[in-house]
Structure formats: C-alpha cells, structure tokens
Write a structure and sequence with these properties.
single chain, 324 residues, alpha/beta, twelve-stranded mixed beta sheet, 10 helices, iron, GTP 3',8-cyclase
Length: 324
C-alpha cells in the first residue's frame, strides 16, 4: 500500500493502553491523565481484526506501545495473536522496562522479535527526577533479563533531557558493554514536550566522539522506522539517532498509528484520522473496515510542521494518549 506521495506504508504502531506506571516530565502531568474507561479500549480480538485487514494492505511490521503496554494484562497473548497473522514479519514492543523482568519469558515464548526500552539516564536521582518514580533498579533488572533471550533484539531509546554530558556518555556505554543498540531521540514538541529544548544529533555525536573515538555512519537498518546508525570501535551494539527535528525524514515515513481507543492516525502531529472502533462496533464488514483504513493511508500528510506555527488540525493530546 502506498500513499498519494508514493511512500510505502508497511509499519503499524498500536497503543494498547493509555495507562503508565511512570510520570515522565515531558510526557504527562505528575498526577497522571484522565484514563480511558476499559470498555472504550480496543479488545485484543478487535486489534487483531484490524491488523488482519491491514496485512492485506501491505502492513508487515507491528509495534506495541502505550502508555506502558506491559501494564495491560496478558500482553504476550496479543503478541502471539499478531505473530500468527499471515504476512506479519515482525512484532515488537516499546516499554519503560519496569515490568519487563517478570514478563520477558512469556513474551519470548509468544515470539516477540524486538524490545525497545525507554531509558533517559542511569543515574538513580536523575531517573527519579525525570520519571517521578524510583524504579531504575527494576528497569536495569529488566534489561539484564532480556539479554538472556538473544533471539530478541534489544534497543535503548534515550530522550536526552538530562543536561549533563556524562549522562549521554554513560547511556551510550551500554552499547559497548552489551549487544544493545542505543538510540538518541530528539524531543518532539507534543504535549509537555513543548516545554523542553531538544538536543540535536551533531551535538551528541561530538560529545560521544570525545569519549569513545570516531563514529562511522553505516547504511544498515536495525528496526522498522527511520533511525540511522553509527558504529564505534569495540562496541558490541550501534549508536542510533531518530532526529525528526534536525534531520526531517517525512519523505521516508512508512508508518501509521492507532490509539488505544482505535483511532487510526496517519501522522503524529495531526488530529486527523478515522475511528475504527466505532466502525467495528457498529457492525461493519471487513471490506468496509479495510476501505476506511485505506483512506487514512492514502490521505497521509506530506510531512509534519513542528518547526512552523501551530495550525487548527494539530494534535492536542499528550504522547501517552496518542501512543508513544
């Protein structure tokens, strides 16, 4: 399936809950957000039905997100259901890692392909400041547990919100010590992220090269999205960057997103899309569901405009409500 600008859309990000056990300062308020009632969240059967229709349109890779997806009961069951769909090549998961140690065995058995762990610092005090929770030990235990399953690719996603340069150096060191790819993600001006300055790729590269030596760009891709990577001598993993602000990659965008309520979005920045939940619960056929999905994909915007003035159709929800 291609959109009207010729981009091949083969990647679906699915939020399975808006709930989270952390309260990251750039994502949500300290007291959390008004939660979606359980009955308004898609069931696993509904998610699987939508995904089955999407495989007919060329979706091959699915990422499960939240909120925090591991909060939702029996997440591994959904992984197994999606892996059984004809045409699905990869099912991956983005998590904060707090609940990973206790669930990794079930996720591995279900066939999960990759895990992205959101981790902005290895300093316990800074972690508590950023997340408003003291859970760093549990995240690190989750990483160690995941490393026991080499068939599952492991990545660290770091939003460089902690100012000290040593924080970037220490996070990057994980790629030296372990077969983990460490990716630095520029702060997106969505929700509370608008209150933070992003750190650009060139600045971070300069800091890391001072600490570890030359970073050599490589062409290989190690995931579903637009991340590009560098290798460093003696590192087991790679260093990656997702630089939506300084290295705009909209012309290569291959994804659509679905919220926990079943609203299909073609672009992170815009409110526009289609409510697939109401369509299904009104008794639509698979053909009608597929047609609605196809329309959203075809009308995918040409690009975001985060560096320009806001417009009326810009998304006003928080990242945890959209699906990070």
């Amino acid at each position: 399936m291609k959109d009207r600008f010729g981009r091949e859309i083969d990647y679906l990000r699915i939020s399975i809950t808006d709930r989270c056990n952390l309260r990251c300062v750039y994502c949500m308020p300290e007291n959390g957000v008004v939660q979606i009632p359980h009955e308004e969240i898609l069931t696993y059967d509904e998610i699987t039905r939508i995904s089955r229709c999407m495989t007919g349109l060329g979706i091959r890779k699915i990422k499960l997100t939240g909120g925090e997806p591991l909060i939702r009961k029996n997440c591994a069951t959904l992984v197994r259901m999606l892996k059984e769909l004809p045409g699905i090549e990869k099912v991956t998961l983005t998590t904060n890692g707090v609940l990973l140690e206790e669930q990794i065995a079930d996720l591995a058995e279900a066939g999960l392909d990759d895990i992205n762990i959101s981790l902005d610092t290895l300093n316990a005090a800074e972690f508590a400041k950023v997340t408003r929770r003291e859970s760093l030990d549990r995240v690190l235990e989750g990483i160690q547990a995941a490393l026991q399953y080499p068939q599952i690719g492991l990545k660290i996603n770091c939003v460089p919100v902690v100012e000290e340069q040593e924080n970037l150096v220490s996070i990057a060191r994980l790629a030296k010590q372990y077969p983990i790819h460490v990716r630095f993600i520029e702060m997106m001006p969505i929700g509370y992220g608008k209150d933070f300055q992003f750190r650009g790729e060139s600045e971070i590269c300069e800091i890391l090269e001072k600490a570890y030596g030359r970073m050599t760009p490589i062409k290989e891709r190690y995931g579903n999205g637009p991340c590009h990577y560098y290798k460093i001598e003696e590192f087991q993993g790679k260093i990656g960057f997702i630089s939506a602000m300084t290295h705009k990659f909209c012309d290569q965008c291959n994804r659509v997103r679905m919220t926990a309520e079943g609203f299909l979005k073609a672009c992170l920045q815009y409110q526009t899309g289609t409510d697939l939940k109401n369509l299904m619960r009104s008794g639509c056929t698979d053909d009608e569901l597929t047609e609605a999905i196809q329309k959203v994909i075809w009308e995918k915007p040409v690009s975001h405009h985060f560096t320009s003035e806001e417009i009326e159709t810009d998304e006003c929800k928080l990242m945890s409500q959209i699906g990070g």
